[in-house]
TrEMBL record:
BP-aspect Gene Ontology terms: FtsZ-dependent cytokinesis
Description of how the protein assembles with itself and partners: Self-interacts. Interacts with FtsZ.
Gene Ontology CC terms, in alphabetical order: cell division site; cytoplasmic side of plasma membrane
Pfam families registered for this protein in UniProt: FtsA, SHS2_FTSA
Family annotation (CDD domains): ASKHA_NBD_FtsA
Keywords: Cell cycle, Cell division, Cell membrane, Membrane
Organism: Dokdonella immobilis
Family matches, as NCBIfam families: ftsA, PRK09472.1
Annotated membrane topology: Peripheral membrane protein
InterPro entries: ATPase_NBD, Cell_div_FtsA, FtsA/MreB, SHS2_FtsA
Location of the protein in the cell: Cell membrane
Family in the record: Belongs to the FtsA/MreB family.
Name of the molecule in the record: Cell division protein FtsA
């Protein structure tokens, strides 16, 4: 028996608009998650976080999974997958139950969470994520851990995130077509928060802004609990598109120029710096000032941060986020992004890179992997409540082939 099959291995699958990443981690109770392998493949089947081409998404997932399996030396059976898109909604709900034996037990806690979960949501939405914020016993507020406390009536306040049934079903279908099982679907901003936020920030109040390629996902925390989630349909792809249109260059070259030379604050780009811009068709490439590029990029980032600020204001928590803003996601890596964000938000801003993991930590200490690492950390929390083997040693290939046939025919 291969040594790895005895370990509790977990897989996070970040299904993004620009790339699909599979990260394999090993979880031992009481220990940080150790990253064993990672696989990444460009994604062409999603638009603004939502699957629009199943075939192409299945192929990208398959490639990312195979690469991760090779690196970790294991066979992946199930994954914790991320979900994003402007269909994501949130609401804060609460439930009340009597305490059975005058002392709160785990069963009472489960009952009150069920009571809070039983809230009407639109017929085309499904519940994706639920997190208790705090508990109230006989009017005594702000209780974090109610078990063992005495009282007559228990209330729970919870944060509930819902998403479109069709979007969730399409992600599950893509994953099952690869012969894999979905352990859980987790909203991407919730996953990223596990990877990049510190406990102090959650307590003080913080707003996480995860800027991907297709969506910008927001999560607001105060007093240690999640209070508000949202998704904006403007992100890195719009910046690439602006560059392609303004500099009259093909989209693939625009993406390359953005990654290599773009700057979100025009005053940081020196006038004498120039870049080479490929032209469309067989025209010769041109040289342009880097400042010209920054002047194209800056307005789009200003718009993005203004929309995020409007969302923060609308949530009612703007004055409660003392720790400020944490930016993460691939499109937050650009020079000048933090400076521009501080100008727009008038708050401290920092870049959030994935933490709380060991092993290949240097490989994943990049904002691009915030969601993937967060899914792993979420999975490790779930498996602490009950073992769920997502990976087994290399060997059960026949099962894998038969699963693939079931998924495809």
């Amino acid at each position: 028996m291969n040594r790895k099959s005895e370990k509790n291995l977990i897989v996070g699958l970040d299904i993004g608009t620009s790339k699909i990443v599979a990260i394999v981690g090993e979880h031992e109770p009481g220990q940080p998650v150790e990253i064993m392998g990672i696989g990444s493949h460009p994604s062409h089947g999603l638009k603004r976080g939502v699957v629009v081409d199943i075939e192409s998404t299945v192929q990208s997932i398959q490639r990312a999974i195979e690469e991760a399996e090779l690196m970790a030396g294991c066979e992946i059976r199930s994954v914790y997958a991320g979900i994003a898109g402007s269909h994501i909604r949130c609401l804060n709900s609460h439930g009340i139950v009597p305490i059975r034996d005058r002392e709160v037990t785990e069963a009472d806690r489960e009952h009150v969470i069920e009571a809070a979960r039983a809230v009407a949501i639109p017929a085309d939405q499904e519940r994706l994520y639920l997190e208790p914020q705090d508990y109230v016993i006989d009017g005594q507020e702000g209780i974090r851990h109610p078990i063992g406390m005495c009282g007559v009536r228990l209330e729970a306040r919870v944060h509930l995130v819902t998403g479109a049934m069709s979007a969730a079903a399409n992600i599950r279908k893509c994953v099952s077509r690869c012969g894999l099982r979905v352990d859980d679907l987790v909203p991407q901003q919730v996953a990223s928060s596990f990877a990049v936020l510190t406990q102090d920030e959650r307590e003080l109040g913080v707003c996480l802004v995860d800027i991907g390629a297709g969506t910008t996902d927001i999560a607001i925390f105060t007093q240690g609990a999640i209070r508000h989630t949202a998704s904006l349909p403007i992100a890195g792809d719009q910046v690439t598109n602006d560059i392609a249109v303004a500099l009259r260059t093909p989209t693939a070259h625009a993406e390359e120029i953005k990654v290599k030379y773009a700057c979100a604050l025009a005053q940081l780009a020196h006038a004498e710096e120039t870049i080479q811009v490929p032209s469309v068709g067989d025209r010769p490439p041109r040289r342009l000032a880097r400042q010209t590029l920054a002047e194209v990029v800056q307005p789009r980032y200003e718009e993005l941060f203004s929309l995020a600020q409007a969302e923060l204001r609308r949530s009612g928590y703007e004055n409660l986020v003392a720790a400020g803003i944490v930016l993460t996601g691939g499109a937050s890596k650009m020079e000048g992004v933090v400076d521009l964000a501080e100008e727009v938000f008038h708050m401290p801003v920092r870049l959030g890179t994935p933490q709380h993991v060991t092993g290949l930590a240097d490989v994943v200490s990049n904002q691009i992997h915030a969601t993937g690492v967060g899914l792993l950390l979420y999975g490790s929390r779930q498996s602490a409540h009950g073992p769920r083997r997502g990976v087994e040693a290399v060997g059960g290939v026949w099962d894998r082939v038969s699963n693939w046939f079931k998924g495809n025919f």
